[in-house]
Specification:
Length: 355
Amino acid sequence: MTSRLDKFRAELRLCGAEAAIITDEINERYFTSFAFSDGLLLITQSEAYLITDFRYKEEAEKHADSNFSVVVPASRMGFIKEVLSDSGVSLLGFEGKSMSYSEYSMYRSALETEMVDISGIIASLRCVKDEKELENIAAAQKITDAAFSHMLKTLTPDMTEADVALELEFFMRKNGAERLAFDTIAVSGDASALPHGRCRDVKLKKGFLTMDFGAAVRGYCSDMTRTVAIGKASAEMKKVYSTVLSAQSAALEFLKEGVLCRDADAVARGIINDAGYAGTFGHSLGHGVGMYIHEEPRLSAAAGERRLKRGEVVTVEPGIYLEGRFGCRIEDMVAITEDGILNFTASGKDLIEIF
């Protein structure tokens, strides 16, 4: 099996770069399988270095990918300059999307070499997940599903939106999450009409309660949304919920390797529009998930000719938001396969009425 380093080096050659420096912490972990917060990677066509300081040296030597040599140089810049000189590097790759202009200027001046942005190369490599990455995502989602089941048993009329978010977060951390994948959303009543509303210190309001949350396991994220009714759902609430669920079901059925990302969005959006809710689904159908909670690909009308690839992981999260009244979103996370999907999300989607 071709390693990540080999794939990366091949892509570097295609853009004319002989080496690259990696300074983004998540990308550092992607290549080395080791999380650290002070240092960088230097990758040439023949060598790979994890450059850090004394605090991380011992752990890095034990846990980082063995293809990387762990070094603690007296001068990081001096070490990099020496390696580039010895390797005859004339074009150096850097992460333009995460490196600040001041950092870029520092490297450009000190190294006296041409530099090229290779952010797109790394993003493209990370889109398609290998078996181990899919296992990590599945483990994160298993915790997230368990948190939802726990929440259904724990909800009380006296809880606030902030209480719900805290309970979800505590359960996920207690049950194996190394961190949250993102800030938990728990919004009720009229606030459920806000797709990314902030949790309030107010008791749960009658109407919909939307919970959007996820865990991270070994660096990989999960993402799910479930909407439940606090009290009895009105006829219109039931129609909205049913419409969102139909849109999601159709999109899930449509997804497979090779389909256009924009077409997946259109499938769900068409059902929502035809039900009389045109203009109420104001975000894209979904996004890629991995070590970042939002990454490529995007299931969006703006995705152009981008087609889904086997091994990519995306969310499918249509919604309807009626301003000032209520909103509903249902989200699963799936991996793309040759003839369909692998759905990581096990939580049921029948409308649940609580209290």
